Model the fold of this input.
Amino acid sequence: MRLFLDTADIKQIRDAVKLGVISGVTTNPSLVSKAGWPGDYKSAVQEICSLVKGPVSVEVLSVEPEAMIEEARSIATWSPHVNVKIPVCAAGLEAISVLSKENIKVNLTLCFSLNQALLGALAGATYVSPFVGRLDDVGQDGMELVAQIVQCFDRYRLPTQVIAASIRHPMHCVTAAEVGAHIATVPYSVLMQMVNHPLTTVGIARFLEDSKKTTGKG
Ligand code: G3P
Done:
């Protein structure tokens, strides 16, 4: 399973990329607004692309199919790494079916059912993003949906990759890996939770302490 970073915060992206474990970034309008970008959306996306050098998802804001297609074509020129995020809806599927024939990679977003994922794959989406945490929030098992989509795409040999999105905690990543998600897109805080374990922290401190006894330093 690959890991993407789910953020629009340039500092977080810079810090995470140094770890060598991140192969892409996903953004959405809420994350962009939270990161407080000073206006030049295109330059900020290009900076992210130069840092990550892997797929970077940027969401369209149009709602009509023709406008979505035009917006997606424009976003796709920003960098060869840019993927276009399009929400599940009739207009979105129409747009995806046109864009996929132009080799513009689309990440189908706000996916909450197997049917939506299947429609996205049939329309030609490169990725589908089931929102795990938001399903959990309303009392449905988000990871069960990820497992269903992975099995369905495997069974019918559909090339669309599954991005486990709306990840809220490290156990989501564990389960995403167990059920065969191709990618999990994680907030920076969850990435750090994946790195850390209290026994590792205690173990490092103890080794350092014991090494001082041997070397007499410190
Ligand atoms: O990847 C989708 C993500 O940004 C949504 O996360 O926590 O707002 O449900 P959340």
About this structure: The chain is about 55% helix and 15% strand. The first helix runs from residue 10 to 17.
